[in-house]
């Protein structure tokens, strides 16, 4: 999933047309929909300030839009290999599942990631138990800052 796919996904999630989103980020009414279509199909790539505007208009963190390309399984597996290199993560096979494991003692960044994974697990379990709604869970995920402000 590239940034254009994410823009489209979040735009659809909040029920906006391309024109409405374009106007929210400041594009002229006359070509707001065309501009958004160009970003969504990847003919244009937004710079940081426009990514921030898209995020604000969609009610999410800019980081929720700026993820690596995960539509390509080969690119994704290489991203996972990089996580192993940087964070000491590894994979294990369970009954019909694979589990990605993290070692908090690998380095300082690995320790931070381990804490973040724990927060994610806690929120996910709250959602599964009904303590928070899917909307609350999604809002937490899409606005997660890892303690940064």
SSE blueprint:
Blueprint: H1 3-13, H2 18-24, H3 32-41, H4 48-58, H5 62-65, H6 73-87, E1 90-93, E2 98-101, H7 108-129, H8 134-142
Antiparallel strand pairs: 1-2
Brief descriptors of the model:
two-stranded antiparallel sheet; mainly alpha; 149 residues; single chain
User: How would you sum up the major sheet?
Assistant: 2 strands, antiparallel
Strand fraction: 5-15%
As laid out across the biggest beta sheet, the strand order is 1-2
Question: How does the helix and strand content classify structurally?
Answer: mainly alpha
Cα-based radius of gyration, to the nearest Å: 18 Å
* Count of discrete alpha- or pi-helical segments spanning 4 or more residues: 8
Description of the molecule:
The protein has 149 residues and is mainly alpha-helical. Helix content is 60%, strand content 5%. It has eight helices and two strands. The chain has helices at 3-13, 18-24, 32-41, 48-58, 62-65, 73-87, 108-129, 134-142, and strands at 90-93, 98-101. A two-stranded antiparallel sheet has the order 1-2. A hairpin with a 4-residue loop joins strand 1 (90-93) and strand 2 (98-101). Helix 1 (3-13) crosses helix 3 (32-41). The longest helix has 22 residues, at 108-129. It starts with a helix and ends in a 7-residue tail after the last helix. The model has no long low-confidence stretch (mean pLDDT 93).
């Amino acid at each position: 999933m590239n940034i254009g796919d994410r823009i489209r996904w979040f735009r659809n999630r909040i029920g906006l047309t391309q024109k409405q989103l374009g106007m929210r980020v400041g594009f002229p009414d006359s070509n707001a929909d065309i501009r958004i279509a160009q970003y969504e199909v990847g003919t244009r790539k937004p710079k940081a300030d426009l990514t921030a505007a898209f995020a604000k208009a969609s009610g999410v963190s800019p980081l929720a839009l700026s993820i690596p390309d995960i539509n390509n399984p080969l690119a994704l597996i290489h991203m996972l290999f990089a996580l192993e290199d940087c964070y000491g993560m590894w994979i294990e096979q369970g009954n019909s599942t694979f589990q990605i494991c993290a070692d908090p003692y690998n380095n300082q960044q690995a320790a931070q990631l381990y804490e973040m994974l724990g927060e994610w697990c806690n929120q996910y379990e709250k959602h599964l138990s009904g303590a928070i709604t899917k909307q609350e869970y999604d809002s937490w995920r899409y606005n997660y800052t890892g303690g940064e402000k």
